[in-house]
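User: Show me a protein chain along with its predicted structure.
Assistant: Here is one chain, sequence first, then structure tokens.
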Amino acid sequence: MKQAPPKLLLAASALLLLSCGKGNEPGFDSKRRSKGIEALQQDPRFKSLPVEEQRRSIAALRQFEEEMPSSEAQDRSDRAELVRTAPPGWRPEKNGRHLKLILNSKTARYRIGERLWYSIELKNIGTEPIQFTEGESFFKNGSEDMFRWKVLIDGREVGRQGLFSFEAPVTEPFNPPGFDRLSNRQKSEYARKFEREHNFRSQRERGLNVALAPGETLHSRPGRFPEAGEKGLTEISSVEGPFRELGPYRFEARGKHTVQIQFRNPGPPQLTEGYYAFMSKRGYSRADVKRMTDEAERHRLPSADSNKIEVEVGD
């Protein structure tokens, strides 16, 4: 069997895990998860992968199943905090998968040197549920890791950085009871597991994975800052209502300015003859390429441009 490039194999594995119950689609539950490995092993696409890639896919799914309870708890918490249900009497604006991005400013007037205080809302205005997933969530902390968001002021993209990200210190003991009696190998294994679990929790807290039913709206998290409490910097408070600062950009020119935010989700490669030939040399038939591309396109989020707001900057 011909070997495909690692990146393509990774993409294939991701699609396999998705279709076999990895949990990125609405309606996922533990019953489906319990059959995940069995379903994965029976999938013809899985059987066509190199043996080593099959092992990696199974290991990834097993790790996912171990971490699922924590993931589900985080997802429920994020949904309760950031998602609002459809109002009574709501009706879809369009058929299919469609998103509407709404931008709000705390005020219409700013001074030279001030930052924009804004909030955004992402509403499912279509007739189908949409799964919204971010590794580094723009809705949570104003930063991202996939270059899907743009902030435009007077039509020009401005630089930005994430909001102040505060991570509470680890409170659980690194050395559990009996740790000193473990062998060096056991200590190393525990340390690796502890680090992996801590990194996973930290990553899940930064990421976002919510299903938006038709009419539901995802709201950006307000600005959050650490406070000095009795136990140190462990408390976080929200300020300025639902708004947050856009950093590091500051208004520099007097007058009226327009602000807009854009969301772009890149699609799969175009199916040109050159691309078919490229994939054919790596063991993929035209049917394989078409199926993988269609599946990636089916899960791709629709793009959205926010409304344009006008602000005035003075002394």
